[in-house]
């Protein structure tokens, strides 16, 4: 006879009831109706090859285990393919819930270094993937304008973009010292 | 004959800055079908839904609304050729239309840079415009039928989902893109797990290349198993993913196992319309397209 697994205890001090309310307010309004069927985990392309378990994440969110959820980098393994949202028998907006949890994680200072870098690119250039020299050459060869008619070609437009980024507090969010980068 | 339609062409990041051949193919093909494209001057990143919407929803929504507002000011609807940008605009419009508070907030932010935004505009995908013409509308333009070509079609997630906010017939197994592909004369091959995600989205391509490549590997393997001449996509980010993943997977393996040419739909259609492959940028791809081009009997 093997010993029964020791039950995992949840300390009431780890429970933040506001966490689930924030997720509900942001759009995943049916999340409390989750029946833990596991369809989300079964259809997840990321969960098939990583430790990412959507069902578990939803359970933890409902329990209010905010710190555990936002500090775990597994939260960043979702590709946002929306398959779980499409298949959920309770029609829970699972992908939206994950996006909200990620927003909270970032506000708490948890951000992966490459994500911080891509944000810095956006703040500097208005693009997540700015033009480089090699592609400028390709554009010319193709007979396209060397500099595309985006913010790259319009200084005033880039200023407007930066202005928005500052007014929403995104610059401060990215440039503040985080817990992972 | 329908009248000429005019759209503001939203480029995004990956298309103009990494795969300008895709942009070129759209600019060459659409006008020949009566769809006129106007440059959307001063647009930024959409911003990318997987990353920036994950980081800060308010910033994502404000920047997306700015891009939509720029198009709205021209009086045109917006068209994009990237599923990620399409997803951003569809969701951004849905969000402000569902929630007047969000609309008010966005309008206030945009007012700060002198933009008046009504959220009356529509955002469409290049494929949506071509689907409105339909196979029957495209066939008369096909002068070089690609009868001997067999391809694997990849729709991409954000083109189709969330399905409640998309214009396509409600089904888990869409066929509209296969039909547009077959209008060129090519055959759309059946293959396993066809609706699998490319693996790039959600910030994965930027932060976790091994995971991105492992997801891509599954579909690429399924395509190799049935034998195709190309993989056809309609998203600049899926395109980047399948091009880059094949190079990376081969490097890891030490052999050239993955060598499926990756074509954007308007590149395939352009070939069938008799357009020079060089004009479609097919000589600029990461995965060599020459074997495919030999098969369509053209010299690149």
Number of helices of chain B: 14
CATH architecture of the largest domain in chain A: Orthogonal Bundle
Shape of chain A: elongated
Number of strand elements of chain B: 8
Q: From N to C, what is the helix and strand string of chain A?
A: HHHHHHHHHH
Report what the structure shows.
The complex is a heterodimer of chains A (181) and B (300). Chain A is an all-alpha fold and 181 residues long. Chain A folds into 2 domains: 96 residues, Orthogonal Bundle (Fumarate Reductase Iron-sulfur Protein, Chain B, domain 2), CATH 1.10.1060; 63 residues, no CATH class. Chain A has 10 helices and no strands. The longest helix of chain A is centred in the middle third of the chain and has 14 residues. Chain B has 300 residues and is of the alpha/beta class. Chain B is built from 14 helices and 8 strands. In chain B, helix 12 links the parallel strand 7 and strand 8. In chain B, helix 5 packs across helix 6 and helix 7 packs across helix 9. Chains A and B meet through helix 5, helix 6, helix 7, helix 8 and helix 9 of A and helix 1, helix 2, helix 3, helix 4 and helix 10 of B.
Summarize the structure.
Chain A is mainly alpha-helical and 181 residues long.
